[in-house]
UniProtKB/TrEMBL annotation:
ATP binds at residues 30-37. Residues 3-362 form the RecF/RecN/SMC N-terminal domain. The RecF protein is involved in DNA metabolism; it is required for DNA replication and normal SOS inducibility. RecF binds preferentially to single-stranded, linear DNA. It also seems to bind ATP. It comes from the Bacteria. The keyword Protein transport does not apply. PANTHER family: DNA REPLICATION AND REPAIR PROTEIN RECF. It comes from Microbacterium soli. This is DNA replication and repair protein RecF.
Amino acid sequence: MIVEHLNLVDFRNYATADLTLHPGPNVLVGSNGQGKTNLAEAVVFLATLGSHRVSSDAPMVRDGAESAIVRARLVHGSRTVLVEVQINRHGSNRARINGSPAKTNELPRYAHVVLFAPEDLQIVRGDPASRRRFADQLLIQRTPRMAGVIADYERVLRQRTALLKSARARGIRGEGLSTLDVWDDKLVSLGSEIIHARLRLASDLQPPLAEAYSAIAGADHSPQLEWAMSVRGGDPEESPDEDPDTDAVSAAREGIEEQFRARLEAKRSREIDRGLTLVGPHRDDLVLRVRDLPVKGYASHGESWSVALALRLASAQLLRAESPAGDPVLILDDVFAELDADRRRRLATITAGYEQVVVTAAVEADIPEELHRHVVRIHAGTISDERTREPEVDDD
């Protein structure tokens, strides 16, 4: 897939912006705070319906505006598709595909993007929410209908948690809250679908993760990933250092719904006491390991970066293998400044073979030579000085 043209209205620091992109590598150069990452964020939103920087949509709308528009002309082989999303500060977002109204969760069917960013280090070193967000955004790209499932789950979770808080305030305990059963049924149905999808994702990511890690790090440290799940009885949110029982995780592929329902029943009194929903995929964690040790707390800075990059590369390889639309667009947002020379070279070599790569950098010299081709300069929200590097000609 190729992003041929990007148009923004009232998005972040852009009142309006137009960016033409080309097949192969594209480099966006500008000092920090000029708007490079905002362009990357807009493209990523079309693919994941979310931001890699913020958890809500409102910050993406320019100050003083009520909505932002992101439009992109996408090329899938010989087919061109125009996609558009209106991001509203209040209320639901709206989408159009080839000029016709569409559901926003249809957008990831057309936009396939994998982003590398400094924030990726939080996937391996941050809290469980960072890893859940990584997994769920990839789920949406892999299976766009999961956007609706995840949104429905979050809505049910909010309503169920509100009911628990109301019960706590009114002093209701245990069996006195019969209306909770209806929300339990919805939570179990939607949550089990998310858990099953996440387990499949972890299994499918394992081979490309190991391959990508070796390519980035130049060593085989046996990277592994597995889900620690609250439906098994633990709580990764409250006991982050607890090792997942891999045999139990494998067994849990069967009977997820039954385990989910049993844990809700067992924790009902505690949930009412705390006014929180304590069981479900919103409490789970993706545990990452290298050399049989958890990355969080044990891996070096270089190993952590290698795992983070390998997760993104594995995601790209997975989407590349499964998508009839071809390669996903790779966006490398201010990543090279964070890497040593060896990892820069390795990452550039691996990514240069994709159909389209978009690189942002504050310092042009940070970008390896093989990714220099089309260069665009960004200054104070203005896109200018677009040029194509021509091969040097020997006058002699």
